[in-house]
Amino acid sequence: MELWLAITLVAAFLQNVRSLLQKRLTGALSVNGAAYVRFLYALPFAWMYGLWLWQGQFEGLNPEFWLYVLTGAVAQIVATACLLQSFTTGNFAVGTAYSKTEAAQAALFGLVILSDTVSLWVVAGICLSLAGVVLLSGRVGLADLLKPNRAMWLGLAAGAGFAISAIGFRGASLSLDAGTVLQRAGLTLLVALTLQTLIMGTYLRLREPGQISKALSAWRVALWVGVIGMVASAGWFTAMTLQNAGVVRAVGQIELLFTVFTSIWLLGERLHRREVLGMILVVREMMAVQETDREAVESIVHEGWAEVVLNRPERKNAINGPLGLALAARLTELDERDDVRVILLRGAGGAFCSGLDLKSFNEEPPPAWVAEFQQIWRGAHRSLFNCRKPIVGALERYAINGGAALAIACDLLVVGETSFLQVGEAQIGMAAPYNLAWLSLRHSEAAMAELVLVGDRQAGPRLVELGFAQQSVADDQVLTASKALCERMATFPEGGCG
Q: Where is the signal peptide (predicted)?
């Protein structure tokens, strides 16, 4: 399971718990007063979290960040007001159902504002999720949904507000000029909660006098609302920093499943076929998004260095057109970043790369990228050659043929004791142009002949002897040693690396 998905599921569950606790406050507080509690009591914990992440020194703030985060903070407040207002129209289910269009709207706004794209399969998954949440939102029929009324417009406005807030928070986090994913998300959350507490507090002071005092008096329950709400929000912000906001919000609809299960467990309510179908659709959407929207190559930025991860573990990170395009894109992006000085190239799932994905090449009908593959793969190697930052390779298990070319292209290579590199094209009557190019550029003719002409596997210790690898470590220590090397190189004075 990918990190953003796991974080989203935890955040959705915690949001459900927070909502249950908030309901206990509605007897003593107004609806707006109970909503204010989530901001007021989460704020101190958000500051502690942000200060801990940044060690008291916030960096990378810029005008673009402030515009995004202010837009997100205000949009979330307006969306909540629209949703609550829709409940007063007598069409609770209709308002709720239309507010759940937020995932689809977030995908649209993300495309327009942040140029975040999603595949057609993910769009289909979001639509599937929307159908599921409509079934779970109440006994509302198609005729109710198609009939224009005030609840419909307020629900759509709420969905738009929540979508804009998600895009605003993602945009704010991505616009910061410094920081890891956690730091960016944590700082965005801290600023957003501060703004929302001030804005909502001013509104209550002017329009609902006495609610702030009541909120302070209800601290025993409200404190838990704040703690749990802050952790949930930290999860949402982190997930949306890692992934398209529309996709995160679509998966987040699973919160409704938690609500249904809570109703069964606490209130003894019975499930109907409508709810069961809705649950199936929401879960199926989550699976579809996980299966189809994964990047073929991912990048993870740390302090001073970054990872480029070949991300097709189900195919042993085998090479196809999308992987070649994504590899070139990730390397180019990181090469242009001033805060990245060293790059680690590795494979997901405990293996480096098994070579060309012959199954993909032989599909019927052929994928559109097949005709352009030579150009695509040339572009990937051109990006490796042009990269100004040193590249450290982490060779786990194997690097075969085309995968071997990627390993040889690395400036430094850390390999496991039983891991191997194999340039075996000669054994199957194929040329190995990229292997030969990198070998002739970096290594002696004798070493190149031993690797290429016979085509046998060369394990870790032998790769060190031949000069192909710098370190051979225990198989389970390859990533640890590679990351330690990158972290060390990232501390060198500017100009010393890259």
A: 1-19
